[in-house]
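Ticket #823: bound-state structure for alpha-D-glucopyranose.
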Amino acid sequence: MKYGHFSKDGTEFIITNPSPPRPWINYLTNEDYCAIISQAGGGYSFYRDCRNDRLLRWEQGNWEIDRPGRYLFIRDKDTRKSWSATFQPLRIPPKSFKARHGLGYTTVETNYYGIRSELTYFVPRKDTCEVWVIKISNLTKRPKNLEVFPYVEWLIGDFHMEIRYRNIMNLYNRIWFDKKTNSILGRKTAVWGDMNIQPNPYLIFFAGSLPVKGCATQKESSLGRFRTEANPAFLGEGKFKNSEFCSGEDGIGLLKHELKLKPGETKEFVVVMGQTLCGDMKIDGRHPWQYPKAAAYVKKLLDKYRDLDEAKRELEKVKKLWQKRILGNVRVETPDKDFDKIVNVWVKYQLYICNFWSRSPSYYHESSGGRGYRDSCQDAESIVSIDPELTRKKIIKIASLIRQDGTSAPGWSDTTGPANHRPNKDHQIWLTPTVASYIKETGDKGILLQHIPYLKDCWIKGWEIDRNWKGGAAKEGAGTLFEHLEKNLNFTFSDVGERGLPLIGHADWNDGIDAAGIKHKGESVWLAMALVRSLKILAELANLINKKSKAEAFLDMAEVMSGKINKIAWDGQWYSRGFTDEGYNYGAGKNEAGKIFLNPQSWAILSGVAKGERLKKLIASTDKYLDGKYGYALFYPAYSNYDSRLGRMTMFSEGTKENAAVFCHAATFMTVANCMAGRGNTAYRSMKKIMPNAQDNYELYKTEPYAYAEYLIGPEHPYRYGEGAFTWITGTAGWNFMAATEWILGVQHDYKGLLIDPCLPEEWKECRVSRPFRGANFEIHIKNPRGAQKGVKEILVNGKKIKGNIIRNFRPGKTYQVEVVMG
Ligand code: GLC
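RESOLUTION: The complex was predicted; output attached.
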């Protein structure tokens, strides 16, 4: 491929062309601080919430230019040539270029005029900052007198406010050079939460380990009139202007250092930037730069990372941590190397990013801030086999968003608390499967009886900023986790329309069907199916804690709902998608657009609602109408006109986003459904069609080859079918990992033990899975001599044949050799 390749061991993606068709990015993050960075140094950073606590400006929505970023300008004093060491923003073609996106770090290497530079960016394991370790080498035969200029542009605060009120927001800026610590510090004295202004207890900082020969904080006086960072005035001979204070205008962090290099010599230094608590700063003078204590708060962090050895040691620890997270658990080996690479490394990494930050910090869309409820439930479920403790933590937090009436807040932000926007109707069904998976993985059924506070309604009253919110801050009684789940599902079961199917309200899984139920009449067939699935799971949970009659009641409810779906929503060849407030049945054959939707078919299988002939028919219909060269489309045909009965979904251009794109999350639901239906060939091929590292044409696909896209543009788009869009933060990662490991390779956690039920493409004659499970290790060797797609003939554990396909007897600390024969 002309833009780059994976490293040999698959843990780095090495970009060799500075301008791939889209910014190809990485997320450098701990659980509090995150830096998004492209191959050319572009990107932004934020603390705990990517909307309301952003440090750096980046022209979001204008990703084509991919600026500004974390730059290092270099100027040769003798030749007077200048360049930027990350290619951007000056964009002079480098003699060589390599950007290596790794697990927890990104390194950009360039060579200009015989000066080789290597910038490694990372975010420490715990501290709320980012560190750039910079190495510059003189490859020429002459001594070099260089000036180097680390550069960033500040946002500080709320990104949405910034977009609307840019020249008001900068009036709140105070940025200054602190002589005692040789660092640039700054803040806005207050910031926005969701609803109100709050004093800002944080201070941003920017500093380097080299002696400071100049510093600038004002954007305008540094870049110059009619100029940008792509042709900044300060690089001109004698043009660098010190500006130690920036007050009420656009602010930057710009330092000037000198670097003398002998022929062949290499020097290293560090740049550190971030945000930290500055406590209750006493204002002794008139201006913030007279805050005497401010510098003391950042000094510790600055001292730590300005020490080159310490910075490098931390980098190694970060790398180790990520390697442990990613490489130290489930591993697969199949005849398909692309499959192995994405499953063993990159989809797990993507899944961590999703778990840490949900759907907000995008390189493409508006970055609404906070974390979504449904997304977080799915992310937490999907990561359970590699990080059960993380799942547990999230379950407790998410459960604290459930109210006494069984409804759930639509999400939360780590800076402003529970979300108060319009609730989608499907939130209630998602936590139950997550809890079940957690228990199946760990055996920890005690979690069901853990007491968790209910959320007091915050949707109407608003929410005060509580920066240390850990969940359940405003309590209204408490109940066990099981009771929370029960309330959740009881709510959805009774929140139904005239047909008896759940109301869709302001949307269900599909955010774009946002008008179908605003009059509280529209019903969702998909949601009914999802409810059936969760009710069945809740019945299993009830049995675990000996609530037999409850279990029966939940099964009855599931039965009742299945019956209704089968009576009302079967359209002859497939299930329809729903009914609007006016009673319009969408996803039905008689319609012009939106005749058949994917989700009601996949979930008819996932929920067990479809049986016998219907199952066969709906599968044939998905093959016929929805499957294509680049995977399953979300529905067919696309809408070409706004349909006010349905909503925003119908506004997108044909094939984009929720208007009949190949929505990878939904396509992966179908992969799992295909496995449940025993269709190994189709399941595997549908997975391959959207696999980022298995695309045949990156001029067309465009987005990163190492992270799943939210969608590929769908077949009805006039000219962009197959283009990837909105990468990284998508439920695709989680479902994909589950589909690959639990469904295709078929190694599943179960209440009773480790269940093995692969569903393979027939050409796979052999594969291996190794996996920790409840303290033991399993080395599983699957043999498929006859090319079966499904069906386990026998299982041997340490050479002994077991009954059935669940491994029940094992001990922690032991490794078990498992041989599985299909056929
Ligand atoms: C986005 C959202 C997800 C939603 C999907 C379909 O991926 O993050 O929550 O289900 O779109 O609208």
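RESOLUTION NOTES: Residues 359, 372, 374-375, 509-512, 658, 665, 710, 730 surround alpha-D-glucopyranose (CB under 6 Å).
TICKET STATUS: resolved
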